[in-house]
Amino acid sequence: MGPNRAIDRAELEALYRSYGALVKRRARSILGDDLEAQDAMQDVFLRVIGAMGEFRRQSQPSTWLYRITTNLCLNRIRDSRRRREHLARIGEAEAHAPRPTNIAAETRATLFRILGSLDPELAEIGIYYYVDELDQAEIAEILSVSRRTIGYRLDRFRAEALKIVESADPVAAAGAAGVPKAGGKTG
After folding, report:
1. End-to-end distance of the chain based on CA atoms, in angstroms?
2. More confident residue, 41 or 49
3. CA-to-CA distance for 170 and 187, rounded, in angstroms?
4. Residue 85 pLDDT more than 60?
5. What is the spatial distance between Cα 68 and Cα 45, in angstroms, rounded to a whole number?
6. CB-based burial label for 104 (10 Å; 0-12, 13-18, 19+)
7. Which of 24, 179, 21 is nearest to 107 (CA)?
8. pLDDT at residue 171 in the model
9. pLDDT grade for 151, boundaries at 50, 70 and 90
10. 84 falls in which pLDDT band (50, 70, 90)?
11. How far is CA 155 from its chain centroid?
């Protein structure tokens, strides 16, 4: 495939058959909802149509699709947060916002608040490390940066996430102080 060549239908179908389930699982792991994951999967493959020229042959299609999926889902979380903030400003959010009914729902809400507030680059690295449990070398390979850079960015992710949690709930932040730093030490 040439650098500016559009993807044809057969190539798209082959990518979808080979990687559709991977894309949907990835989206579900970030978004936490099957319907949202299905929508995200469709959006990923729509982006593939227009972005095939960006695919670097030195990486696997799965790595490329994984990254597109992660970024698309982070954008959805960020957009959702902005919509909620807008509704709150006009006074409708309180009437329509679902209330968390358990700790898992509250944890997911906190995670979404953190991811939606951070620089996309830090959010992506945080997901790879804390959600996907990839090690720093694996993340460095995916993002084409050094392992040391990933370590620094993970420390920044943790510090900024802690500030966000502290601003929302100082009691929860005290418990978050035990979250491992990039080097494996607790803070």
Report:
1. 47
2. 41
3. 16
4. yes
5. 9
6. exposed
7. 179
8. 55
9. very high
10. low
11. 17
For residue 106, the 8-state DSSP code is H
Residue 95 has pLDDT above 60, yes or no: no
User: What's the CA gap between 102 and 104, in Å, rounded?
Assistant: 5
Within 8 A by CB and 6+ apart from 9, the residues are none
Residue with tokens 């080979």: 18
* Tally of residues, the chain: 187
- Residue reference for tokens 């999967």: 41
**For tokens 């996907």, what's the residue?**
132
Please, what are the domains in the chain?
1-97 (1.10.1740.10), 98-187 (1.10.10.10)
Mean pLDDT of 147-154: 92
In 3D space, the residue among 115, 127, 125, 27 whose CA is nearest the CA of residue 68 turns out to be: 27
DSSP letter for 6, please.
P
Which residues, in sequence order, are CB contacts of 51 under 8 Å at separation 6+?
68
Question: Would you say residue 5 has pLDDT above 70?
Answer: no
